[in-house]
Amino acid sequence: MKIIIAGAGAVGTHLAKLLSSEKQDIILLDEDEERLESLNSNFDLMTIVGSPTSIKGLEEAGVKSADLFIAVTPDESRNMTACMLASNLGAFKTVARIDNYEYLLPKNKAFFKELGVDSLIYPEMLAAKEIVSSMKMSWVRQWWEFCGGALILLGVRIRENAELVNTTLIELGANEIPFHIVAIKRKQETIIPRGKDTIQLDDIVYFTTTKKYIPYIRKITGKEEYPDVRNVMIMGGSRIAARTAQYAPEYMNIKILDTNIERCNRLSEALDNKILILNGDGRDVDLLLEEGIHNTEAFIALTGNSETNILACLSAKRLGVAKTIAEVENVDYISMAESLDIGAVINKKFIAASHIYQMMLEADVSNVKCLTFANADVAEFIVKPDAKVTKKLVKNLGFPKGFTVGGLIREGEGILVNGDTQIQAGDHVVVFCLNTMIKKIEKFFN
């Protein structure tokens, strides 16, 4: 597949690295020659210095034969223009990064498609939705719903009081259990577990289950004492913060702290008056105490500085906040954030890349998600008639190592999968695999 990525910023660079590891034909287009130099020498991709809104630049990049054109520069209008030009010059499919929510409204989809923009992605909105999902479950590191909640993914840190500590998957499976363990993150290693694998202290364990059994998983992981989130403090008045405040349930009381008075004023005008905007530094312990940090169940750090966000969450943890979430855009800091046990991590690059990645897959995929802490992906495949997975029982399909089926949704009902399960056409099958394996296993679902 020939893919042109316009914009060698954070999202474009991460996406180019991810796709180049899969031996895709990647061309990265940017006007900054210095930014491209290091990528050209370290990764299997081609870089071209040029403007994504220049017809000549697009032609030099070979846009006429591009299967996918992705515009992810920081400028929304340039991305839209680049996609329109690329489409008219022959690109098969285009994707534009935007920061205007109105463009995403269903009534505008056909309009943009006519212009030559097939898909729109708003990373800040996706990040905000992920934060809100995480806040709804204070005891969960990651939370993801499939088919409107018919099947649930939960990522949970295992502590001393968990019933599962030092238990093998074979021992768990001796009784009928209403969940499936699909991945384990242990220090720097990600494990797609088998029967002999043991759950250990401080593992992050990823479960699939149905809504009915969430309280049971909460019990066996020792998380019943975690308070539900009612009071939320957000440090940093970014677009993600504003969207998080808008998407949060009405029962949550939200305070946003920002050091910039002009930004505070803009937030006050844009947001509901029930959301309190404070001009102050979220690292100021006296201010946090004054604003009731001891009665706060969730602290979210969303400044533009990863180190600041990590340190602020550490401070909030020490002040007794049960749930902390940090925006960490520097990928190198994510493992550090995990080792410091700061809580959940949000990374716009991973979120954007996951959504763009699913557009590349030939199988019918409705969801792809990168697990931030784990070197693994989760995808929701819609099974086609006569697909390979419909021919045999799961245990006889010969799935590769590093891959597992987490469950399926049939006629709106979530079903856990075992070796004797027969997958049918039309099923939504949730799969887990180590990074870069999705392309290898999609052939089972075509």
Automatic annotation (TrEMBL):
<dbReference type="InterPro" id="IPR006037">
    <property type="entry name" value="RCK_C"/>
</dbReference>
<feature type="domain" description="RCK N-terminal">
    <location>
        <begin position="1"/>
        <end position="121"/>
    </location>
</feature>
<dbReference type="InterPro" id="IPR050721">
    <property type="entry name" value="Trk_Ktr_HKT_K-transport"/>
</dbReference>
<keyword id="KW-0813">Transport</keyword>
<dbReference type="InterPro" id="IPR006036">
    <property type="entry name" value="K_uptake_TrkA"/>
</dbReference>
<keyword id="KW-0630">Potassium</keyword>
<feature type="domain" description="RCK C-terminal">
    <location>
        <begin position="141"/>
        <end position="223"/>
    </location>
</feature>
<dbReference type="InterPro" id="IPR036721">
    <property type="entry name" value="RCK_C_sf"/>
</dbReference>
<protein>
    <recommendedName>
        <fullName>Trk system potassium uptake protein TrkA</fullName>
    </recommendedName>
</protein>
<dbReference type="InterPro" id="IPR003148">
    <property type="entry name" value="RCK_N"/>
</dbReference>
<keyword id="KW-0406">Ion transport</keyword>
<feature type="domain" description="RCK C-terminal">
    <location>
        <begin position="366"/>
        <end position="446"/>
    </location>
</feature>
<dbReference type="InterPro" id="IPR036291">
    <property type="entry name" value="NAD(P)-bd_dom_sf"/>
</dbReference>
<dbReference type="GO" id="GO:0015079">
    <property type="term" value="F:potassium ion transmembrane transporter activity"/>
</dbReference>
<dbReference type="GO" id="GO:0005886">
    <property type="term" value="C:plasma membrane"/>
</dbReference>
<keyword id="KW-0633">Potassium transport</keyword>
<dbReference type="Pfam" id="PF02254">
    <property type="entry name" value="TrkA_N"/>
</dbReference>
<dbReference type="Pfam" id="PF02080">
    <property type="entry name" value="TrkA_C"/>
</dbReference>
<feature type="domain" description="RCK N-terminal">
    <location>
        <begin position="229"/>
        <end position="346"/>
    </location>
</feature>
<keyword id="KW-0520">NAD</keyword>
